[in-house]
């Protein structure tokens, strides 16, 4: 196995841990006025953001098995930014929903 492949797998493992455990736990523990709480919502938002649109228009399913090294790296970085409060999860969620046709641009979610 090439080192980059191993690193990509570690990044995907980190992404899955962050979206399935860390972010939902932070959302449930209170203190965060986040618009989502479920792991699949965090995954949708992160994947849509790194793809610049609806993720399944850019990636084969399952997404986590088809992320490039760069995409996995950006996904982990974004998860960490969300967890640290440095990324606006409300805005990221709104953009994801706009791309999906579930919200119009300029509509305030809160």
Can you describe what's shown?
The chain is mainly alpha-helical. The chain has one domain (about 5-100). Helices cover about 65% and strands about 0% of the residues. The protein is built from five helices and no strands. The protein has helices spanning about 5-30, 40-50, 65, 70-85, 90-100. α1 crosses α2, α1 runs parallel beside α4 and α2 (about 40-50) packs across α5 (about 90-100). The longest helix is centred in the first third of the chain and has 26 residues, at about 5-30. It is globular.
Reconstruct the topology from this structure.
Layout: H1 3-28, H2 39-51, H3 63-66, H4 69-84, H5 89-99
Helix pairs in contact: 1-2, 1-4, 2-4, 2-5
Q: What are its keywords?
A:
single chain; mainly alpha; about 65% helix
Percent range for β-strand residues: under 5%
Radius of gyration: 14 Å
Tertiary shape: globular
Mean of residue pLDDT values: 91
Poorly predicted segments: none
The N- and C-terminal alpha carbons lie at a distance of 47 Å
| Helicity, as a percent range | 55-70%
Tell me the number of helical segments per DSSP (H or I, 4 or more residues long): 5
What is the H-and-E element order? HHHHH
Largest sheet: none
Structural class: mainly alpha
- Summed up, the domain count is 1
Quick one: how many beta strands? 0
């Amino acid at each position: 196995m090439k080192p980059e492949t191993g690193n990509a797998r570690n990044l995907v493992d980190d992404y899955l841990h962050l979206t399935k455990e860390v972010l939902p736990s932070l959302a449930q523990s209170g203190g965060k006025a986040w618009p989502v709480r479920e792991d699949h919502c965090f995954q949708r938002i992160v994947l849509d953001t790194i793809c610049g649109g609806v993720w399944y228009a850019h990636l084969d399913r399952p997404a986590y098995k088809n992320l490039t090294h760069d995409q996995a790296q950006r996904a982990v970085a974004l998860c960490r930014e969300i967890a640290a409060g440095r990324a606006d999860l409300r805005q990221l969620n709104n953009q994801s929903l706009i791309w999906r046709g579930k919200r119009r641009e300029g509509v305030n979610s809160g």
